[in-house]
Structure to design on (803 residues):
């Protein structure tokens, strides 16, 4: 099958996730959230969300608790560094079992 | 309405009649009177358009590219080094398939500086993916601008309407200015398949891979090579569409002819002079002189240079004894670009048929060197006698 | 005066998809994401070749949910003019036009077109994201690379010349609004874009962008390094509204504090400055102190 009948004849892109593929595979370290330290979790109220604000990849949700989309998280560690209560730690991907990885 | 005006005004009137939305231009001689006239139309309110006095030719075409991508009918014009400065944008406009129309008022390129006419500027843009039309008089200029918009928008390919600096741009001739209603009947408002808008966000001209790739809907999209192939394919198709344009134009305006070539006394001629632009009309005078001497010569103007009307030319030239290609430009290190293209067309269509004409190349008028009709006559007379040289012959050279 | 945006009041709608090709910890990705929130849906973007070209995706997939025209390197601002002209000719006055270009695309190859559009007063926002080098091509020097920085083409001696002050060049065009921002202060960036959106003519926003591979640091420290640039008084957050210069946000607070972190800490956080000698750092510290003495004096 070729592209003869493709609807465009120029470079005309439409938006969608994952142009760079499953960028979670780039990750060397995985962010792990400790909800007992996380401010919005502790207060059970909208607060802080520094991790959401500074995430370059749009993979942290502004929810209680914040959820991290590991399919695309590149593991930069900015969330861990900016979290005022150190609720996020970066853990070596090698510490996770294959089963953990399959769950992503 | 018949008026007497210069060639730049003929072009400006064409732009006015086509209801162009956005005009961007940077001054360069001999294009300036054209864009000055357009600024007058816009400032006086005669024309409902945005006139953008840009800071460079590169930006002039940038404005047209962006405005065209956002759904506007656009126009620019330039000459010589202005066109060369645009070169990157010229390629971009074609690759983005934007139906921009640009007048190229032909002028020699530097160095050294020279403001006079030859055609090195537009010829050097031959391989950019633009359609190139060449005009021989003012009527052709105004008509070509109108036809160009129809054709460009039909095939999504930009068009250069080329005419000789000074010889056409600054001389006065009578020509017919068509009625607005007729132009409106010929040319509908620009309605592109897509124009940038927030309700249908698209990202245009993004990096495109060497190979094909699946899109977000799961359909296989082109790679760079497919996109470029389609440009070539539709350039070739535009020859047919140009014939359609010519016919529509003739139906509405009552004038026109062959869309690709303009023959003069060619039917029974044994030798044909071939050229681009106003030179071919000057050659008609030589043809008349030589005909009186009993030499059967004719002249053929090439109105469409890209896409190249190879078949039409081969058909018109088959069985002739000789073809003499007069050019005001050349591909340095070889010969004129037109003669190379023409020989290629003759070889493709006539090789082995026994009706292949001999071909010669004459280079003249470089940097505005005066082209005397008696020199044209003499060159044509000599060429009709025997092939003068395998190399291009320069006439008017005082070395 | 508009209320300052907080994390909680920042719009939640995202205009960038996850899974882009941006490097891990890309500072531009943060500024772009928040900047698009400020611009909102009814915006047409223009992008010349740069890291953002890559971040935006390869045909046929785009990471950005706004319409965008990719243009040649030198033509960004002229393309903004073209889109504005087309919109005007179609009577579409509700759509904003925003150009996002890198520092090379702005301070070097794009400066002529930017100056032209600014002089014409064309009504759009020009955002220059300044990661201080040609990072997309492998970190070569640009007009805004700071003195002393090692780059791919200043490999041993570091850049010998000063950083080009693009906001000052734009200020000479008498724009209605100019601002200096940083990816480390995204809410300030958001507020500045929102503030100028409806101001007349060309608006210029300069954004300092930490770049992990180009600057040489562990990606996790990017925000901290950007902050350090501000807290050392090395890179200032300010705005120039109708010709009136004013420090803003964290830089404004530094005037009250009268205390800057030594710039050495900033330089030592990145490997690109590893050849900067103590004497050079002292010289730069001296320049920073002199600049800030001026700010303090104005404040008195």
């Amino acid at each position: 099958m070729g592209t003869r009948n493709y609807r465009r004849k120029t470079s005309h892109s439409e938006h969608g996730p994952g142009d760079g593929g499953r960028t979670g595979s780039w990750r060397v370290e995985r962010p792990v959230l400790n909800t007992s330290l996380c401010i919005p979790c502790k207060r059970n109220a909208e607060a802080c969300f520094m991790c959401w604000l500074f995430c370059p990849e749009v993979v942290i949700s502004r929810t209680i608790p914040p959820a991290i989309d590991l399919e695309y998280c590149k593991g930069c560690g900015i969330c861990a560094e900016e979290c005022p209560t150190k609720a996020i730690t970066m853990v070596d991907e090698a510490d996770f079992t294959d089963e953990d990885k399959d769950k992503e | 309405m018949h008026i007497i005006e210069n060639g730049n005004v003929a072009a400006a009137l064409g732009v006015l009649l086509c209801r162009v939305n956005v005009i961007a231009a940077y001054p360069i001689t001999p294009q300036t009177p054209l864009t000055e006239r357009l600024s007058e139309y816009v400032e006086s309110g005669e024309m409902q358009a945005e006139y953008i006095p840009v800071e460079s030719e590169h930006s002039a075409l940038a404005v047209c590219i962006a405005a065209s991508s956002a759904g506007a009918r656009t126009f620019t014009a330039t000459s010589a080094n202005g066109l060369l400065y645009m070169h990157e944008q010229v390629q971009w406009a074609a690759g983005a398939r934007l139906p921009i129309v640009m007048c190229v008022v032909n002028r020699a390129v530097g160095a050294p500086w020279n403001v006079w006419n030859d055609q090195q500027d537009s010829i050097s843009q031959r391989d950019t993916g633009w359609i190139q039309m060449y005009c021989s008089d003012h009527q052709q200029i105004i008509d070509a601008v109108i036809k160009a918009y129809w054709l460009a928008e039909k095939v999504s390919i930009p068009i250069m309407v080329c005419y000789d600096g000074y010889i056409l741009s600054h001389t006065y001739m009578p020509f017919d200015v068509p009625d607005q209603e007729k132009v409106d009947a010929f040319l509908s408002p620009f309605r592109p398949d897509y124009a940038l808008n927030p309700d249908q966000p698209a990202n245009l001209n993004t990096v495109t891979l060497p190979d094909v790739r699946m899109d977000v809907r799961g359909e296989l999209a082109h790679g760079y090579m497919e996109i470029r192939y389609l440009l070539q394919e539709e350039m070739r198709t535009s020859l047919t569409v140009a014939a359609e344009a010519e016919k529509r134009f003739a139906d509405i305006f009552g004038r026109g002819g062959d869309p690709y070539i303009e023959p003069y006394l060619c039917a029974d001629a044994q030798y044909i002079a071939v050229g681009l632009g106003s030179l071919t009309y000057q050659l008609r005078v030589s043809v008349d002189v030589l005909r009186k001497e009993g030499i059967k010569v004719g002249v053929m103007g090439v109105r469409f240079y890209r896409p190249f009307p190879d078949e039409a030319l081969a058909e018109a030239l088959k069985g002739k004894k000789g073809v003499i290609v007069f050019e005001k430009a050349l591909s340095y290190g070889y010969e004129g670009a037109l003669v190379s293209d023409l020989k290629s067309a003759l070889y493709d269509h006539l090789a082995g048929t026994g009706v292949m004409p001999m071909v010669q190349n004459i280079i003249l008028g470089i940097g505005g060197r005066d082209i005397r009709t008696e020199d044209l006559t003499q060159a044509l007379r000599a060429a009709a006698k025997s092939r003068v040289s395998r190399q291009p012959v320069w006439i008017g050279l005082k070395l | 005066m508009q209320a300052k945006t907080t994390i909680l009041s920042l719009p939640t709608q995202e205009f960038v998809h996850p899974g882009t090709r941006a490097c891990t910890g890309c500072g531009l990705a943060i500024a772009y994401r928040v900047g698009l929130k400020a611009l909102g849906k009814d915006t047409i973007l223009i992008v010349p070749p740069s890291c953002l070209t890559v971040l935006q995706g390869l045909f046929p997939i785009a990471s950005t949910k706004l319409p965008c025209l990719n243009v040649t390197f030198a033509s960004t601002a002229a393309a903004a003019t073209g889109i504005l002209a087309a919109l005007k000719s179609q009577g579409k006055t509700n759509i904003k036009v925003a150009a996002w270009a890198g520092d090379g695309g702005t301070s070097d190859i794009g400066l002529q077109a930017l100056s032209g559009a600014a002089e014409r007063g064309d009504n759009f926002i020009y955002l220059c994201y300044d990661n201080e080098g040609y990072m997309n091509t492998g970190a070569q020097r640009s007009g805004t690379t700071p003195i002393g920085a090692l780059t791919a083409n200043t490999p041993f001696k570091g850049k010998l010349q000063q950083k080009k002050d693009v906001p000052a060049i734009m200020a000479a065009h008498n724009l209605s609004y100019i601002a200096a921002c940083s990816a480390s202060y995204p809410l300030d960036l958001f507020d500045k874009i929102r503030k100028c959106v409806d101001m007349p003519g060309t608006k210029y926003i300069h954004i300092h962008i930490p770049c992990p591979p180009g600057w040489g640091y562990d990606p996790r420290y990017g925000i901290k390094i950007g902050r350090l640039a501000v807290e050392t008084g090395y890179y200032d957050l300010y705005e120039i509204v109708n010709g009136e210069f004013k420090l803003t946000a964290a830089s404004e607070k530094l005037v009250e504090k009268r205390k800057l972190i030594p710039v050495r800490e900033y330089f030592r956080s990145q490997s690109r400055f590893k050849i900067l000698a103590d004497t050079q750092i002292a010289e730069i510290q001296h320049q920073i102190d002199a600049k800030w003495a001026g700010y303090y004096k104005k404040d008195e």
In short: The two ends of chain A are 33 Å apart (CA to CA). The first helix of chain A runs from residue 39 to 43.
